[in-house]
Specification:
The protein is α/β, with parallel strands linked by helices. The radius of gyration is 30 Å and the shape is globular. The structure holds pyridoxal-5'-phosphate. Pyridoxal-5'-phosphate binds at residues 83, 86, 131, 196, 232, 235-236, 271-274, 319-323, 516.
């Protein structure tokens, strides 16, 4: 059982000796790193970031594009920028910049705070591209960046932005930032993230506006600052054909603008969209191209168009975000409870005389074997239906009902064990029907918002026991008080997990490929905040090193963020304890002490009755 790691894992993560290991240094097992941080007192969910994985993906981009630039004798140069909207967290951005020093790798910003991050952390000489709607203040920031000597391009989304740039140019003087035009393409992407492309998209200039922009730039003697055209047809483009279509359209627009007098135009920014394989299941592969094919198509098509139209081959910019960031982060989540775990033999309270159907269930439980397992399972489910009806009609009591639930769960567990190595379609149906519910110490709204909002699934697997066949069809519940906080069992992409006794051992699940978009899109529903995070690097001996821990916010800080007066909260709670007649005076100090302990901790669960967490 490899949970599709060969499909989505990209050799970043491997399975060795039944554990997930990181394919770097001495290949440490994730579970060992988790144990390490828990021994240091960090409980609840944790997010690990791996800078070597960021580097690997950026290197892959440069290697492939540079290969095809060389193979096709292409005249332009390859550049890449990281779109900050995909992950603005400091432990991501600062490490990404460290890992990419010496490459033509910069940052893309879509808002004022993102631009400030870009201006502060971009490596010297590498590009900054500014997309998104801009006011005069944001444009002025671009001019400040140019005055700092940065290689910045403001791509305009509408003619009004261009007019503002001309206005600010007069006010602030040279040096000016470069100007880019975002073009509204006819072509659009496909899939759930494809809304940013196409003629009806929110962004970019139509052909009419492009012609007007060119005139405006010429009239104001700013045409030499027009260096780039930009397009973006959407994120997670799963097929190559829309990319090719968009490239043909954009390549021709570039050539036409050049011929119409934009002689400094030398860059095409092809946006993001390079897809990530999130699927864990062979039949659900979602991408129909490789990075190789993508890079080859981009270089080849742009060369063809430039040569046909007799214009210089432009530099190529790419804004791949998801591709660079997704796999660098893994979220580790402790399992707090298996709901059927409460059904064990000790919970049986059989009476001297039991209803006949319960006697029969008990008999089934004691005599079930490999041969009769399916039949007995059907019988037991049938009996359960009848017994529950008898309860509703008042013929059996609560003890009988509880015995029914316990016996049926025990029979199910035995049956699954007998049948686990048989590939019976019936077993699949049964697994679909009788799922185990795993309660996980995390929030889907905080950590996997795209699952909640878009139904995007992420690879998930246990960190160990991978040499043992998992037997339980699993649905995953988070700890928010919201019924949407569930990843239900889906028989088209089934998840099976182990039947573990959490009183005896810990069990952790890893959610992979969560490094793109999830963190800033995550919301604090029920006031569960960003989990504690660590950056994991490797020393010269290949041992892992934990760096730059950022702890999940404590409860007082969370309330402070909501603009509560936390001093007032502390004062009120203290006063209420002091005024309470139910707490003896000599215990009040102790109660206040315990209260403060809770206030200084984060909102995730620390202990759950019965589990070791
Ligand atoms: N560039 C722009 C303008 C975007 O809007 C986006 C996100 O949709 C990206 C780049 C990053 O896209 P992706 O993460 O799919 O590479």
């Amino acid at each position: 059982m490899d949970y599709g790691i060969k499909i989505w894992g990209n050799y970043d993560y491997l399975i060795e000796d039944g554990k997930v290991v990181i394919n770097e240094g001495n290949r440490p097992a994730l579970i060992d790193i988790v144990k390490d941080v828990r021994e240091q007192g960090f409980k609840g969910p944790v997010l690990f970031r791996f800078p070597h994985i960021m580097k690997k993906h950026v290197n892959a981009l440069f290697n492939k594009f540079n290969k095809y630039i060389k193979d096709y004798e292409y005249g332009g140069t390859f550049y890449s920028v990281f779109p900050l909207k995909v992950n603005q967290y400091p432990n991501f951005v600062t490490y990404l910049m460290k890992q990419t020093k010496g490459k033509r790798y910069g940052l893309e910003a879509g808002s004022k705070p993102e631009l400030i991050i870009a201006m502060s952390y971009v490596n010297e000489g590498t590009p900054i591209v500014v997309n998104g709607f801009k006011d005069k203040e944001m444009i002025s920031l671009g001019f400040i960046s140019a005055k700092m000597g940065q290689n910045i391009t403001l791509t305009i989304e509408g003619l009004n932005e261009l007019e503002t740039i001309l206005e600010v140019a007069k006010e602030m003087g040279e040096p000016y930032p470069n100007i880019g035009l975002r073009i509204k393409l006819h072509s659009s992407g496909i899939g759930i993230w494809a809304k940013s492309g196409g003629i009806n998209s929110k962004f970019g200039l139509t052909s009419v506006e492009l012609v007007e922009a060119l005139k405006l730039l010429k009239d104001s003697k700013m045409i030499d600052y027009l260096t780039m055209i930009h397009f973006h047809i959407g994120s997670q483009i799963s097929e190559i054909s829309p990319v090719k279509k968009a490239l043909r359209e954009a390549g021709n627009i570039y050539a036409e603008l050049y011929k119409m007098g934009a002689k400094s135009l030398k860059r095409i920014d092809i946006g993001g969209g390079l897809a990530v394989e999130y699927s864990q299941h062979k039949l659900q592969h979602s991408i129909n191209y490789t990075l190789d094919e993508y890079a080859s198509d981009v270089v080849f098509l742009l060369k063809m168009i430039a040569n046909n139209k007799n214009v210089p081959e432009p530099d190529i910019f790419i804004e791949a975000g998801r591709f660079v960031a997704a796999s660098h982060a893994v979220l580790i989540v402790p399992v707090l409870e298996l709901f059927s775990q409460e059904y064990n033999e000790q919970k049986l309270c059989l009476k001297e005389v039991n209803p006949p159907l319960i006697e029969e269930l008990y008999e089934l439980y004691n005599t079930i074997n490999e041969k009769n397992a399916i039949e007995y399972l059907h019988d037991s489910l049938d009996h359960m239906e009848s017994l529950l009806t008898l309860f509703d009609l008042g013929y059996i009591d609560l003890i009988d009902r509880s015995n029914t639930e316990v016996l049926v769960h025990l029979i199910i567990r035995k049956a699954i064990n007998f049948l686990k190595n048989k590939n019976l379609s019936e077993l699949r149906d049964i697994q679909d029907m009788i799922q185990e519910r795993y309660l996980l110490n995390f929030s889907i709204f905080q950590s996997l918002p795209d699952y909640w909002g878009l139904g995007q699934t992420f690879p998930v697997m246990p960190l160990d026991k991978l040499d043992i066949t998992p037997t339980r069809s699993a649905s995953l519940w988070d700890i928010t008080c919201d019924s949407d906080g569930e990843i239900a069992f889906d028989s088209t992409k089934p998840l099976f997990l182990h039947d573990v006794d959490l009183k005896k051992e810990d069990y952790f699940l890893g959610f992979f490929l969560v490094g793109a978009y999830q963190e800033t899109l995550g919301m604090e529903h029920n006031l569960f905040t960003h989990p504690t995070e660590f950056v994991v690097t490797f020393d010269e001996e290949g041992n892992y090193v934990l760096n730059d821990v950022i702890e999940a916010q404590n409860i007082l800080d969370i309330l402070d963020d909501l603009d509560y007066d936390v001093k007032d909260i502390e004062r009120r709670l203290k006063q209420r304890i002091e005024d309470s007649e139910l707490i003896p005076d000599d215990e009040k100090k102790e109660v206040i002490g315990s209260l403060y302990l809770v206030l200084s901790e984060n909102s995730y669960l620390k202990t759950v009755a019965g589990s070791r967490n």
